[in-house]
Automatic annotation (TrEMBL):
Family indicated by similarity: Belongs to the gamma-glutamyltransferase family.
Full protein name: Gamma-glutamyltranspeptidase @ Glutathione hydrolase
InterPro entries: GGT_bact, GGT_lsub, GGT_ssub_C, Ntn_hydrolases_N
Signal sequence interval, chain numbering: 1-19
Entry annotated with the keyword Oxidoreductase: no
Enzyme nomenclature, EC number: 2.3.2.2, 3.4.19.13
Key words, A-Z: Acyltransferase, Hydrolase, Signal, Transferase, Zymogen
A Pfam entry, by short name: G_glu_transpept
Source domain of life: Bacteria
Keyword Membrane: no
Length: 569
């Protein structure tokens, strides 16, 4: 682990202009077709920002953070500095480093945080405004990981995002669709309405050039003054005021809530699936344990021989998912507040017991949580997952790999805007109720606690011990399904990462199995029903990104359902 945190952060580095961001393309190679480093992101302008850092000699961490900052500008509906993130980072050591930048509940939060007149509010009611907003963690997480893994000065990471905010970026079809769907949130703050909507209330059309001078100025200050500028002074006061005086659901947040926030380095969660080693982010993320459980429970079945065209493969994946999600719902929470049986949930013996429940010729009639070693007596709560978030991957010329998932939760988060960026609505990832049948819910809201997340940034190591695949996704709890499917595609079915990401998604978080409309899975619905599954067809709302190593070269992958791109150094 390197220590490259530059004293130039404190001194402040002048910002210089740079070339125009290239237009979107699935894969944009370096001149001559040689690729020393690469970034894959849900937006080509953000991927270009990361690639710019690589060309300047930056690390994968530098590239990932420049990508995150650029996404704050060009993908405001999904992620940004007003939210939180998890980073899984391989720098050649025996195990990857994992960094927790998840948001926290303010000190005033109590178990009845979501209650009015003794009853919990509904999820849609809670999303807009202050009560859903957690203390943002992205900037502290970036600073912590940059201290360990960065090569460039802190200020350099901001240059592409500052240009995009100052000089302007065009509204894409995906952003326009989000503005149409989420007007009540995106336009909740006057600043948001002025940026993205016309006087008649309609979203500005696709192709409109959007300039965000407030964000440009704030990013310049944050670049010059360092991460403490986010958690103190005018910005901290602005966040606390926006939450406390929100036009909808105002809730107490203080400057002290901002200043006390700390990002954390957590132990990774790793396990072997066939000849591959899977590593991801542990609690408060539920990604690593749940993805690994899905895979490990399937290990005894011949998925390679069955193949992706056989309904039996998808039946087994669905039931393995059902078993894994019921454990996730009960046990996963912030480990600083709850005893989470991470080792027990990932133990080969426990997952073999769970796997023994799977039947190749019929669906499980019902599923219930198991009892892994170290399991506390806790209950599953009432939660709701939303389709948002952004994942990106970066690799550098030294072979270091960053797999990072960032989110503000719902589209445009809570709708509250400070200094040109949206604040998250991450607290709605807590259970809305603190107890079930008089048993405490592990994922209940508490002061200073981090809500459970489905984000699943993952690194897969091949039989040779080297990184084979770095992957992650966006889309609430479907993230786990997308990542597990992508790994199965590469490991079991011999797909490229691009093919595996593009393959249809099956999602089974409970008794209903959801299959992607207009795909081969929809055609398999009758066969799945014949095996005993309750099947529903849903529209695609998926967004995954990956980079894989093939014959010594890095090859990028971006979800064809998105506007994503992979761009070489």
């Amino acid at each position: 682990m390197r220590k490259f945190f530059s004293p130039l952060v404190a001194a402040g580095l002048s910002l210089t202009a740079c070339a125009t961001v290239p237009s979107a393309s699935p894969i944009i190679p370096a001149p001559g077709g040689q690729s020393r480093g690469m970034v894959s992101s849900a937006d080509p302008r953000a991927a270009a920002a990361g690639a710019e850092m690589l060309r300047q000699g930056g690390s994968a961490a530098d590239a990932a953070f420049a990508t995150l900052l650029a996404l704050t500008v060009v993908e405001p509906q999904s992620s940004g500095i007003g939210g939180g993130a998890f980073l899984v980072y391989d720098d050649g050591r025996p195990e990857p480093s994992t960094y927790d930048g998840r948001e926290t509940a303010p000190a005033a939060a109590r178990e009845d945080w979501f209650f009015v007149n003794g009853k919990p509010l509904t999820f849609p009611t809670l999303v807009p405004g202050g009560r859903s907003t957690g203390v943002p963690g992205n900037v502290r997480m970036m600073a912590l990981a940059h201290r360990d893994q960065g090569r460039l000065a802190w200020a350099e990471l901001f240059e592409p995002a500052i240009r995009l905010a100052r000089d302007g970026f065009q509204i894409t079809p995906r952003l326009h669709a989000a503005l149409l769907r989420s007007k009540s949130t995106a336009g909740l703050s006057p600043a948001g309405r002025a940026l993205f909507y016309r006087p008649d209330g309609a979203p500005k059309p696709v192709g409109t050039l959007i300039r965000n001078p407030d964000l440009a100025v704030f990013l310049e200050q944050l670049a010059r003054r360092g991460p403490g500028h986010f958690y103190g002074g005018q910005n901290a006061a602005g966040v606390a005021s926006a939450v406390s005086t929100a036009p909808v659901n105002p809730a107490p947040m203080t400057v002290a809530d901002m200043t006390r926030y700390q990002a954390k380095e957590r132990p990774p969660v790793c396990g072997r699936y066939r000849d591959f080693r899977i590593c991801g982010m542990g609690p408060p993320s539920s990604g690593a344990t749940t993805v690994f459980a899905i895979l490990k429970q399937l290990e005894r079945f011949p998925l390679k021989q069955l193949g992706p065209s056989n309904p039996q493969s998808w039946h087994l994946i669905a039931d393995s998912m059902r078993l894994s999600f019921v454990d996730r719902d009960r046990y996963l929470a912030d480990p600083d507040f709850v005893r989470v049986p991470t080792a027990g949930l990932s133990a080969a013996a426990y997952l073999a017991q769970r796997s023994a429940l799977l039947q190749p010729d019929r669906a499980l009639a019902e599923v219930s949580a198991g009892t892994p070693s170290g399991a506390p007596a806790v209950a599953a709560g009432l939660t709701a997952d939303v389709i948002s978030t952004s994942h990106f991957v970066a690799v550098d010329r030294w072979g270091e790999v960053a797999s990072l998932t960032s989110t503000i939760e719902s589209a445009f988060g809570s709708g509250l805007m400070v200094n040109g960026y949206y604040l998250n609505n991450e607290l709605t990832d807590f259970s809305l109720v603190p107890t079930v049948d008089n048993v405490w819910v592990a994922n209940r809201v508490q002061a200073g606690k981090r809500p459970r997340s489905s984000m699943a940034p993952t690194i897969v190591y091949g039989p040779d011990g080297r990184v084979r695949l770095a992957v992650g996704a966006a889309g609430g709890a479907t993230i786990i399904a997308q990542v597990a499917k992508a790994i199965i595609g590469v490991v079991d079915w011999g797909m490229t990462a691009q093919q595996a990401i593009a393959a249809p998604v099956i999602f089974a978080p409970g008794d209903t199995v959801y299959v992607e409309r207009g795909t081969a899975l929809e055609a398999m619905a009758p066969a799945l029903r014949a095996l005993g599954h309750k099947v529903d067809v849903r529209d695609a709302s998926f967004k995954a990104n990956a980079i894989e190593r093939v014959d010594g070269r890095w090859v990028g992958a971006a979800d064809p359902r998105s506007e994503g791109a992979a761009i070489s150094e």
